[in-house]
Design brief:
alpha/beta, UDP-N-acetylmuramoyl-L-alanine:D-glutamate ligase, 11 helices, 13% strand
Length: 268
Amino acid sequence: MQEYKMPTRPQESNKGTFGKILNIAGCDNYIGAAYLSTYSALKAGAGYVALATDINVIKSVSQMLPEAVYMEVPYAYRRLNEFTTILIGCGIGTGFTAKNNFKFIVNYFKDKDTPFVIDADGLNILSQTHLPLPKNTIITPHPAEAARLLVKDIDEVLADLEGSAMELCEKYNCTVVLKTHRTIICDKSNLFINQHGNSALAKAGSGDVLAGIIAGLLAQKMEPFEAAKLGVYLHSRAGEIASEDLTEYSVLASDIPKYLPQAIKEIL
């Protein structure tokens, strides 16, 4: 069995010790994505997560998650240097404002070492803009998103998943999490195929949970490849444990973070 190791947690610590994440997520149509990604980052061990989003999303998510910090996106722009990890894309949409926010954030951090996770709508915007990415970026596409990023037919991606993952890595100079039944994680020096998970994870919002978990591990100073690899494992193992209680039919994306502690305990 593959050996996994959680990031260390010194007892002499404060919330800043375990990272400060800025999560740019959600819009009126995708409030759940903002909640799931923020909640999951906290459950993975991040010390502080700020959700930057629209005021209507803030009003909804803050009722469910008092542990997070909330700010509208323009205000977040004034505090960018405070954050140690950036997560962008979960449910932001692909409209004019979302595209401008994405371009601004990516360009602001492009020459910095700040770890970066791009998911969902962020990937769709990236496929249209082809911006150079910050050096410590992880992208988390499913096959259809990978096809758009590579300007290929999805059947070409499915026919060679490992090759497609490596091609994404080369094209965008980043760590890649290509989400399939057996998710592929790679950077320019490493390739790993996750062997855990089941159909319980095939639910809307599951990818938002994964993105949050990976960001939470990055915030705790894990290297991008190791954070991606561990994040995929914890996400898939939590889904397996949840399905033992709830069946593969009835696991919701919001159930996965609730079972994350059990997956972590197995490693500890």
